[in-house]
């Protein structure tokens, strides 16, 4: 097997990512061997590589210099190629995704306990299956777990061109809820107008920039009960909270940004307006549900994608063909480009050819 791996704890671990090879894994009685078909590059993966996430990589590989390297990747879709003697829940050729973070999906093959995998409907494109757990499922949880939502309610979200936000805008109307998407300004008026049209075509009822969020009167009559901050910018979060009804809920869902909102006393502001502050954690949401409920949710989301009720966000496919010249450098550059986080950048999916 081939793995894209790194030295955990190195000063600049992303720069040290390399391609390593090892024999195919051995399958135990309660395990299965899978061949990966697609694996996304998620913001969480970059935090793990940088040592900024509380969960460490759970799998490793020995590099050519005998150094132990960690395998990143928390999401991915794979095909079962071998099952252990005691496995009855999965069969060869089943398409599966992982249940938990940090088990290493940036590799061609892996061995996992059967209980740690969720089978997905065979009709779904593996590239889309690979974003079900950390793309579509979080959107569902943000709408269902943090604030009772009623038809006619409005919600605010930033990082609106991201994968989770994309699915929020499509799922919310199913519950009679409308979405206001907050985006960063663009270089030109034409580009800004194009992004707004695109987000509205995918379900956003309104799209505003941060500046417009502060100044527009369009939102004054909206019953905005929930705001989801995926940027971790206190100034932006405060402006979003200012639009909430008294007693509304602000959910911190990510740490994509670096601004601390210097001079902004966010907590005092939330207290004054009786705003509830909650932290979104995918693992907590999954932990509240049985394995059967998790599987049912993934199957439902996969069905919605297959039927076209949900559509995929804009994705960029990075092909991984074993033995191809320049493969290591191309994969490394894809990870580094994702780290830079350019405005409007598409999510990258590693596709194993």
Automatic annotation (TrEMBL):
An example of a GO molecular function for this protein is: enoyl-[acyl-carrier-protein] reductase (NADPH) activity
Source taxon at top rank: Eukaryota
User: What is catalyzed by this enzyme?
Assistant: a 2,3-saturated acyl-[ACP] + NADP(+) = a (2E)-enoyl-[ACP] + NADPH + H(+)
List each copy of the Enoyl reductase (ER) domain by range.
12-352
Q: Name one Pfam family in it.
A: ADH_N
Q: Which UniProt keywords apply?
A: Fatty acid biosynthesis, Fatty acid metabolism, Lipid biosynthesis, Lipid metabolism, Mitochondrion, NADP, Oxidoreductase, Transit peptide
Q: What is its main location?
A: mitochondrion
A single GO CC term, please? Answer: mitochondrion
Membrane-spanning intervals of the chain? none
| CDD domains documented for this protein | ETR (cd08290)
User: Recorded E.C. number(s)?
Assistant: 1.3.1.104
Give the enzyme's main class according to its UniProt record, as a single word: oxidoreductase
Gene Ontology process terms (BP): fatty acid biosynthetic process
Presence of keyword Lyase: no
Where is the protein localized?
A: Mitochondrion
Q: Which InterPro entries match?
A: ADH-like_N, ER, GroES-like_sf, Mito_Enoyl-ACP_Reductase, NAD(P)-bd_dom_sf
Spell out the family assignment given in the record's similarity comment: Belongs to the zinc-containing alcohol dehydrogenase family. Quinone oxidoreductase subfamily.
Q: What is this protein called?
A: enoyl-[acyl-carrier-protein] reductase
| Taxonomic source organism | Aspergillus heteromorphus CBS 117.55
